[in-house]
Amino acid sequence: MAKNLIILTYHRVLDAPDALQPGEISTDFFADQMRCLSRYFNVLPLLDGCRQLSGGTLPPRAVSITFDDGYADNYRNAWPVLKQFDLPATVFVATGFLDGGRMWNDTVIECIRRIPGTEIDLRDLGLGCHVAKDDAQRVAAIHDVILRLKYLEPGVRNAKAATLAEKASSPVPDDLMLEIRQVKELSRSGIEIGAHTITHPILRSTEIGTAREEIVGGKRRLEEIVGSDVRSFAYPNGKPGVDYDPAHVELVREAGFECAVSTTHGAATASSDIWQLPRIGPWAESTLRFGLRTLRATF
Ligand SMILES: [Zn+2]
User: What's the mean pLDDT in 170-183?
Assistant: First the structure.
């Protein structure tokens, strides 16, 4: 008797592997993973998976596919693959970045990519001085700068990110996130659009009233865009006790969602909290390992 639902978390699906984003999957590898899922697993829309989890009617080897943040490459690269294998998925969209916005962490990545030389000196921003002789050192610099910025007050963080952007030798891209017309098209084609707040704040370091506006406002904006109810939510960053706490879970319940997902690692079981479902990051060294790891988690 199947008990577990594996909810996979993706963010970007890159055109090609990117040495500065080793944790993000490329389209080729994503296609291999989707082929594996379509052959050996029962891939369910997230809401169906949640309902069947609660009702004890999950099929064996049950998997749901989710994407966080609302990257344009979900439309450009992931969607054609999903269509090819006839797989459902949910895209959690932070509405504040649609149509040309950029998340601050991407500003960091794209700036560090574009700062020439073998040293990245960001001491004027309080962000350290980093050796950058190769890609691995640039990746380390990116992680360090993101960590220094992540829990700052959003106004301070955004100002530092904007100053950082000025140090880049060429303009940083402003087409990383979905356009509104793409969200509409995904929704019309059956991809579920889920909410992920407006500006992707760390809810726990946000005033509770602002947190409510972020949660409810993101949902309403998406409902305007897609013309139907938005029923699922993903907590920004998603670590319970660090990024959100029970007060935010309550806000999500009150907002009228049917389920919510965290970034706690694990399989969802019948005893999981439907408002804080765990997920699994699917990155693995090979498609075989991906398949075996995912399979093992369903038991
Ligand atoms: Zn996110």
Answer: 96
What's the CA-to-centroid distance between 117 and ligand 1, angstroms? 31
Distance (angstroms) between ligand 1 centre and the Cα of 93 equals 8
Rg (CA), the chain: 19
**Distance of CA 20 from the midpoint of ligand 1 (Å):** 19
Q: Which long-range contacts (CB under 8 A, 24 or more apart) does 155-163 make?
A: 157/104, 158/104, 160/125, 160/126, 160/127, 161/104, 161/107, 161/108, 162/107, 163/125
Q: What is the pLDDT of residue 284?
A: 65
How far is ligand 1, taken at its centre, from the CA of residue 118, in Å?
A: 31
* Ligand 1 geometric centre to CA of 202 (Å): 10
pTM score, two decimals?
A: 0.95
Ligand 1 mean position, distance from CA 197 (Å) = 9
286 burial via Cβ count (<10 Å: 0-12, 13-18, 19+): exposed
Helix axes 180-188, 208-226, angle to 10 degrees: 60
Map tokens 């993903």 to a residue: 234
Domains and CATH numbers, the chain: 5-100+175-297 (3.20.20.370), 104-166 (no CATH)
Quick one: pLDDT at residue 290? 82
Percentage of the chain with pLDDT > 70? 98
Distance 173 CA to ligand 1 centre (A): 19
What's the gap in Å between 23 CA and the centre of ligand 1?
Answer: 14
Provide the residue count of the chain. Answer: 299
Q: What is the pLDDT of residues 47-93, one digit of tens each?
A: 999 999 999 999 999 999 999 999 999 999 999 999 999 999 999 99
Task: Give the count of alpha carbons within 13 A of 280, CB side only.
Answer: 23
What are 242-268's pLDDT values in tens digits?
999 999 999 999 999 999 999 999 999
